[in-house]
Amino acid sequence: MNRMKKVNSLGVAGVAGVAALVLPFIGSDYTVSFSIQLLIFLVLAYSWNWIGGYAGYTHFGQVGFFGIGAYVGSLLNFHLGVPWYFAAIIAGLAGALTAIPLGGAMLRLKGPFFAIGMFGLTRVLEAFALGFDSVTGGGTGIYLKPVSDLRPVYYVVAAVAGVMLFLTWKLDNSRLGLKLLAIREDEDAAESLGIPTTRLKIGTFVASAIAPAAMGSLYAVYLGFIDPPTAFAPNIELTTIAMVLLGGMGTVLGPLCGAVVLSVVNELLWANYPQIYLASVGVIILLAVLFMPRGIVSLGMKTGWVTVSRPLFRRLAARHGEALS
Amino acid sequence: MIWRFVLAAAVTVAALAPAAFGNAAEPVRIGVALSQTGNLADSAGPYFKGLDLWREQANARGGLAGRPIEFVVYDDRSDPATAARLYEKLITNDKVNLVMSSLGSATAATGSAVAEKHKVIMINGGGAAEAIQQRGFKYVFQTAARISSYADGIVPISGKYHVKSIALVSRDYAAARDISKAIKESLSGKDVKVVIDEYFPAGTADFSSQIAKGQQLQPDLWIGLLYPSEAIETVRQFHSMNYMPKFFIANGVSQEDFITSAGKDAEYALGMSLYEPSLPSGGNKEFVKTYRDKYGVDPGYYAAFGFVAGTVLEAAVKKAGSIDTEKVREVLTTLKLGTVMGKHEVDPTTYMQIGVRGLVVQVQNGKREVIWPEEYKTAEPKLPIPAWDKR
Predict the structure, then answer these.
(1) Which residue of B has its CA nearest to A137?
(2) Complex ipTM value
């Protein structure tokens, strides 16, 4: 039974990987363009899932790191001619570096205060980008030399998405993952059990800032352009969170399901019913929150469609069983 | 409901008819990503109305190189990433012959990069930023007025009336910062001091602190980069605080709401404008009339942007004699012509718009009159602005 499951999930991963590899050769430029946007959101959703889903610190400020990355990457590329893939790595590091002091300060807040505080912080960053026009180009933004072929960008983004999925799967099966879940369920209790909550929270927060910042940099390359409203778009934040909510917070496959379902539904609705698509997306998210508050994945688990991620306690029990036998 | 059905049936028949006969010319397909939803939707609406009016009229004239014109339109949701994706779709999936930019600099910026990549001509009719053109693209031609055109009239007016000090009070939005920068650049080296330079956040309705500052520092020229509602509040509060600078100019003055809402307080205010229905430019009377007949309102500058983008394309195709991309491109690099917005001319290396100039208007007797440049003047300026008790 167990082996079957492993084979299945390996098979699914393999098929998805092969599909991702060959897509640029069989799909049109439009397909590649659409996939890049989907994958960027996928990475954002996985990052947000770490801090928001596992550690329970939901917030509206991830796009702040996305924007920082977009600007760091664009400025490096524009002024110093740093190649875009290298600029993305530095952008990711810049995201982490900013997240360390921010996490130290902001994670003292809890619940809605943290969530809204992060939102405010992002607006401050946007105002900075607008105001420091000698560096950032202000409202005009930064115009990069557009890439002539989107395929390399696609592969880099797809690789990062794969890594995020893998890391989340590792996290879900690790003690670290359990500790984060403990913080989510009851932080005081977790602390009293000897879990270093502050360190873990900040660590997760910093880890969840790296990929979004790198994605911001790649997003700017993909667009050939960045300006403050684009880099810090609240829409990117909300779409990411909607994807995680729809798929299932704190699960391995949740962000994947959410991102794919929402992107595809979005695209189909929009292409066929442009007048009502926004309202329909709203209704879908509303229904999802009302009738499957734990997301598609948990619904799938209940009905037995998804068997990859085992419920927490059964997994714990299984682990004890193995240790005893 | 029945009417709608009949209408739909009629449209379908009309659309199918040429195909049924088989030998009618294949239409020229022009792709546009348009912001039908999102924050640019209000401006993109008239832009497309202008484009569509041109299409109708051009088709009546025989279309492009003898082929009827057809638009393929998608909604870019005012999002630059969606715009990029849609131009990719228009060009690679729908195989349009050429594209028009969306309205708004960010969406035009990303869309133009896609057009350039595929070597498809884009008429940049809606992206005002200079930077769009400064990337060395070979297939993107700007017909929209540049953002800095707003500042065109400031220097001559300042020179003519010996303005020594200015106040800049603007809503904090991207275009305002760009225009403000252009104004300061054009005034640098001249004997003009900036005594107030302030941005206020969106939603501000009380300008008493700025006006108090103005009463103290007495700037000659007060420049506001404002939405119409803020321009209205500014003159109302000028009146209630019994303050009037010698010259007050704002872009919000050029919108219809300003005169209707500010009433008598609107008098004498100057407006930065890019297009006026009263502009005595070639073909403008005809444009305003047909636009009004079709849509029931006067065209604003976004409508003119759309109409001009089409006009320029039509002239280029006519001169090239075909819709062949390279031939039309060649013509567009040097094409000069008169349009409803004045002149069309592009810079020979960046293809940036240099023909269209900004206008200065003044509210006189409840109407906007063009007072600058000289060649388009519809009335004499009444300046400096008289104090409230001397009217």
Answers:
(1) B178
(2) 0.84
